[in-house]
Amino acid sequence: MQHFDIAELVRSALEVSGCDPSLIGGIDSHSTIVLDLFALPSICISVKDEDVWIWAQLGADSMVVLQQRAYEILMTIMEGCQFVRGGQLLLGEQNGELTLKALVHPDFLSDGEKFSNALNGFYNHLEVFSRSLMR
Q: Which region is the signal sequence (predicted)?
């Protein structure tokens, strides 16, 4: 099993991505880490049974829009993601909201630079899904 400090991994990834270290508050590795974004849903990072999940809740209204744009959303999911174990993002329902999820591939957990690629990749997909669901 791979052992890592998720708080340090996230901090390093944010710094590699150009985030000012003074803007990064205390990060607790024992609970879900939430990255609040401007004009997009927050990105959440959590560890469960040694697996790292990146996820974002897309909103309660998204379930109706999902029905209307299912083909477009399915095509986006089928494009694949290199940073995700299994190669594809997941869509699910969590607390009544449509949720975009990624089980991070272990190759992207070895250092901040690799994890920043996973975070940035998830962010890019979150933008695409948010645009699809909001138009």
A: none
Mapped onto helix, strand or coil, the DSSP state of residue 35 is strand
pTM confidence score: 0.90
Look at residue 9 and tell me whether its pLDDT is greater than 50. yes
Dihedral sign, Cα of residue 134, residue 63, residue 85, residue 15: positive
CATH number, residue 21:
3.30.1460.10
Query: In terms of residue numbers, what domain contains 15?
Result: 6-134
Residue 1 within a domain: no
Counting the structural domains of the chain, the total is 1
Q: Which residues contact 108 (CB under 8 A, 6 or more apart)?
A: 83, 114, 115, 117, 118
Burial of residue 21 (number of CB atoms within 10 Å: 0-12, 13-18, 19+):
exposed
